[in-house]
Design a protein that fits this description.
Protein name: Membrane bound O-acyltransferase domain containing 4
Keywords: Acyltransferase, Endoplasmic reticulum, Membrane, Transferase, Transmembrane, Transmembrane helix
Number of helices: 17
Shape: globular
Membrane topology: Multi-pass membrane protein
Pfam families: MBOAT
Helix content: over 70%
Radius of gyration: 23 Å
Order of helices and strands: HHHHHHHHHHHHHHHHH
Number of domains: 2
Strand content: under 5%
Organism: Cyclopterus lumpus
């Protein structure tokens, strides 16, 4: 997929989420004034999600509705200790089918794929997070859902919060991922103990989005005036760094808009001591300055898309007894769609994170403050170069991103990290012998 097409695809999410902001404010203020009971709040949020899905995805919204229906049937019929295996297997097979269908149409038939289908599959990936999060809660007995055939009214009351969690218009097109129990408590808190007015926090974050988009626009305009293949290697490396930054800014903007939408509905508020300033950062996928200041690949990986990283740790990393790091990145590759660029990008990401652990162990800064500053600076540069390669390979998805990396020599940085990893592993094996 070209850079222009990718930007347009991401703008679809931002545009539709901005249109949803007034409805989120409406839910908050009606609930705060006591005009919406808890049941009607759940209905408003879930119906709003269904309407948003149909408007944005058209016929492809059936992908989400089918997943939700199958999940509800599994929850009602399968024992909680076994439900996660069934849910995980069926949901990932359903999602993989649509990923492969997109690849078949793109690479084999060479047909343009509807933007609505891209939106639906992206939202299906987010729905997979919420569905598996609930199934793990049921398996670990953090959540108890009881259904009785003789008490249909009670069963409907139990299902309504679950449907609202899965199809909420505040998280349908973007994260951040929150737990089911936290969602239920937040919905109940809107009427019992509502948070302060979120208007100021939402306005401040919208200004951040506007600033990020302005920086991205100027950066893309600057990059369009240069050809990285017809310049000296340093210019080519700087060009790819700028391209990767512009791609990451798209994510930062999308995450901020998602935060705004959740904050506008009253979610994400952290209560502090009386008199302290309101903190609306309880639901966040990452902060621009914190992520970009990461001086190590392992730090960047934990901070990038934070709620998804936590979900992957819970779903894969903590459950794998052998090679948990590579299994986690391997599953992330599967979840993202298994394009060729994804293979290269995610496997490189896993290898460089593994290399970071070993390199840091051998080259940990000494007590000297000068050496510590030099080490941190060099480590930050290495992280930026490596992340630029990974982002370029993953976002272009096909061979075009890899050709760009080979032309500009920036691909040597992650290659150097991987070679250094094998050298350190070999050295470590000789020392142990």
């Amino acid at each position: 997929m070209g850079l222009t097409s990718w930007f347009w695809e991401r703008r679809q999410f931002t545009m539709h989420q901005c249109f949803s902001l007034p409805f989120a404010f409406w839910v908050f203020f009606l609930a705060k004034r006591g005009c919406l009971s808890l049941t009607y709040r759940y209905l408003f949020v879930s119906v709003g999600g269904c309407v948003l899905a149909v408007v944005t995805m058209g016929i492809y919204s059936s992908l989400l509705f089918t997943s939700t229906l199958v999940f509800i049937l599994l929850v009602c019929s399968v024992d909680p200790s076994c439900v996660h295996i069934w849910v995980f297997g069926i949901q990932m097979l359903w999602q993989t089918f649509w990923h492969l269908l997109i690849q078949y149409r793109e690479y084999y038939l060479h047909e343009p794929v509807s933007i609505r289908l891209f939106l639906a599959v992206s939202c299906l990936m987010l729905l997979t997070q919420r569905i598996t999060s609930v199934s793990m809660d049921l398996q670990e007995k953090r959540v108890h859902l009881t259904f009785s055939s003789s008490a249909k009214r009670k069963a409907c009351v139990t299902l309504l919060p679950l449907l609202s969690y899965l199809l909420s218009f505040t998280t349908l097109l973007g994260g951040p991922l929150c737990s089911y129990s936290r969602f239920v408590s937040s919905m109940a808190g809107l009427g019992l103990n509502p948070p302060p007015n979120p208007l100021g926090a939402v306005f401040f974050k919208l200004m951040q989005v506007l600033l990020l988009e302005l920086v991205r626009y100027r950066l893309v305009h600057f990059l369009s005036t240069y050809d990285p293949s017809n310049s000296i290697p340093l210019y080519g490396i700087l060009w790819v760094l700028g391209l990767a930054l512009s791609l990451r800014i798209q994510y930062y903007s999308h995450w901020r808009i998602s935060e705004c939408l959740n904050n506008a509905a009253g979610f994400g508020f952290w209560a502090h001591a009386p008199g302290a300033s309101p903190d609306w950062s309880g639901l966040s996928d990452g902060d621009f300055w914190a992520i970009e200041a990461s001086s190590r690949m392992s730090e960047f990986s934990r901070r990038w898309n934070a709620t998804t990283a936590s979900w992957l740790r819970r779903l894969v990393y903590r459950r794998c007894k052998r090679f948990p790091l590579f299994m986690t990145f391997g599953f992330s590759l599967w979840w993202h769609g298994c394009h060729f660029g994804h293979f290269v990008g995610f496997l490189t990401w896993a290898a460089t994170v593994k290399a970071d652990y070993h390199i840091h162990r051998y080259l940990h800064p000494q007590p000297s403050s000068v050496w510590r500053k030099i080490y941190t600076c060099l480590s930050w540069i290495n992280t930026q170069m490596t992340v630029a390669c990974i982002v370029t390979a993953v976002e272009f998805r096909d061979m075009s991103g890899l050709r760009l990396l080979s032309l500009t020599y920036i691909g040597l940085f992650p290659l150097f990290n991987i070679i250094l990893l094998f050298m350190l592993l070999k050295l470590n094996s000789k020392v142990s012998v």
